[in-house]
Design goal:
Elements: E1 6-11, E2 16-21, H1 36-40, E3 48-51, H2 56-66, E4 72-78, H3 84-97, E5 107-110, H4 114-117, H5 121-124, H6 143-157, E6 162-164, H7 178-192, E7 197-199, H8 207-213, H9 238-249, H10 259-266
Parallel strand pairs: 3-4, 3-6, 4-5, 6-7
Antiparallel strand pairs: 1-2
The chain binds zinc ion.
Zinc ion binds near residues 225, 226, 234 and 239.
């Protein structure tokens, strides 16, 4: 059975992305959705699972989902990466801060990658890409394959009709294109004889737009760092630089304590 998924195609006139629904290579653009609820359409009336790491984008996605869906199931994937323990601490605090009767308990799935990556910066914490490194320095092979595979199976087994994740328009990687997501979800539903939909509400948005949508959430409890120091953001890695820029570009006060600034103040 061919199952529906929703994905996004570029609208060159606005630099944004419009919703399309198809399992084929054909796309049928619809008007650009200005809000989360508009993006979700009739799917807003259904339960949803949110892939959440604890970073800004996925935390904001969960916050928006809680305003719309009858039940939100947060799912996180632990792969054994260097920063995950601290990331998980922040995620737990964020979820406590936004707790509501609509928020289901966090589901933690595991997908160890140390056997694949070996002595890689993401598993050792050594030679972490710094604030001046290019975007592709933080590419993790197979990342979105892992992020989709088990959570999609989980949704299928638990009869959760939709899974959402928060890649942005600016994601430069080959496993974050509409075509990749379309094919990946098609293969998984084929394997499962399933019908789980994938939603990517931010794939047409810039970071600034997402940050402004989440400005009322406890963003100080999110975590973006790949080289944490003393359980807080290092302030010097590739992802900390991206985080600083995200707050500044959205004209929001950055509440994050950065270790390199704390050290300077107490020296
Ligand atoms: Zn950092």
């Amino acid at each position: 059975m061919v199952s529906p998924i929703f994905f996004f195609a570029r609208r060159p006139d606005r630099g944004g992305l419009a919703i399309n629904e198809s399992m084929t290579s054909h796309t049928f653009p619809t008007p650009f959705a200005e809000s989360y609820a508009q993006t979700m359409g009739n799917g807003a009336n259904q339960d949803i699972a949110i892939l959440i790491s604890g970073g800004l984008d996925s935390a904001i996605l969960l916050g928006e989902a809680l305003k719309v869906h009858p039940c939100v199931h947060p799912i996180t994937l632990r792969c054994g990466l260097y920063w995950e323990a601290i990331e998980q601490d922040h995620l737990a605090r964020f979820l406590r801060a936004v707790a509501s009767p609509k928020l289901a308990p966090l589901v933690t799935l595991t997908q160890p990658v140390d056997d694949l990556y070996g002595l890689h910066w993401s598993t050792t914490g050594e030679d972490i890409p710094d604030a001046h490194s290019p975007d592709d320095a933080v590419f993790l092979p197979g990342r979105n394959v892992f992020l989709l595979a088990k959570p999609m199976v989980y949704c299928h087994m638990k009869n959760i009709p939709t899974l959402a994740m928060a890649p942005l328009q600016s994601n430069p990687f080959s496993d974050a294109t509409p075509e990749f997501f379309q094919r990946m979800v098609g293969v998984l539903n084929q394997a499962l004889k399933g019908n789980v939909a994938l939603r990517l509400p931010y794939l047409g948005l810039r970071k600034r737009q997402v940050m402004r949508r989440g400005r009322d959430l406890p963003l100080e409890l999110t975590f973006s760092c790949i080289h944490p120091q003393k359980n807080i953001h290092c302030g010097a890695c590739n992802k900390c630089a991206e985080r600083r820029h995200a707050f500044a570009d959205a004209d929001l006060l950055d509440p994050t304590p950065y270790a390199n600034e704390v050290n300077q103040c107490t020296a």
